[in-house]
From TrEMBL:
Keyword list, A-Z: Signal
Signal peptide bounds: 1-18
Protein name: Uncharacterized protein
Organism: Friedmanniomyces endolithicus
Any Pfam family the entry gives: DUF3237
InterPro entries named in the record: UPF0311 (IPR020915)
Amino acid sequence: MRLSLLTSLCLTAIGALSQQTPGTYTPAPPPPPGLTFLYTCYAICDNRLYTTQGPRGLRTTIPIIGGNFTGPRLRGQILDVGADWGVTDPQTGIFSADTRYNFLTDDGANIFLQTSGPAQPDGSLHLRGVFETGDKNYYWLNNIVAVGVLNAISSTNTTFTLRIDMWHLASDWNSTTFYNGSTYPAQASRGALGAQGPATAVEGAFGVLPTPEVAWFADAFEDIV
Ligand SMILES: *[C@@H]1O[C@H](CO)[C@@H](O)[C@H](O)[C@H]1NC(C)=O
Ligand SMILES: *[C@@H]1O[C@H](CO)[C@@H](O)[C@H](O)[C@H]1NC(C)=O
Ligand SMILES: *[C@@H]1O[C@H](CO)[C@@H](O)[C@H](O)[C@H]1NC(C)=O
Ligand SMILES: *[C@@H]1O[C@H](CO)[C@@H](O)[C@H](O)[C@H]1NC(C)=O
């Protein structure tokens, strides 16, 4: 008796599952989480060091030698210590970035970042961004989930410049309260950053730059990989 009740419960469950065939999902999807703008970054890359066929595909090493980033809450320079160890999928030819580099903010904080993500049909790359810092004012960066869009915008004989626009999920942390009860950045210093006029600075810095050229980018990456 108990067994048959179990059996019929199971059958009911299986019946309910089998009604959810692909394409017949009826509940309203949850609202998507919003995004908060983090920064626009211009990364200057040197010509590739080398490309080699390895166990995970065609690995290309591209030094990241400088540049800058500007956003409402952080701005500064890219240090000459990083690179993109991107890989090209041998089954599709799709290039995926895999970077590690360092930001130095205008107020002296070191931020280590890692980005990765594949080329997209429109020629841009879509990135995941992961940040790591010990600086208390930027500690919140350790606890955000960031995504970005990368386009190549210009080149010289020996370098090329990438533009990376980065956002993070809107409900992520934007400050840090430590066990000692102190919250950073303090309300006052957040105000100070705002008073410097980050929005204007962003427009001023980027207004003169050309719109990212998708075609150019495709060419550039053809050269790289
Ligand atoms: C950031 O770098 C870009 C590209 O090199 C440059 O055009 C822009 O003026 C720089 N912005 C700042 C704030 O240094
Ligand atoms: C860049 O390359 C072009 C064509 O190969 C050459 O004419 C030019 O002199 C090079 N410029 C520099 C700064 O090396
Ligand atoms: C920080 O996050 C809180 C809580 O999510 C939000 O109310 C506030 O507007 C955010 N502040 C900034 C400067 O983004
Ligand atoms: C609170 O703790 C943080 C993280 O350890 C530290 O950076 C900060 O200086 C401390 N603040 C005070 C007022 O002790």
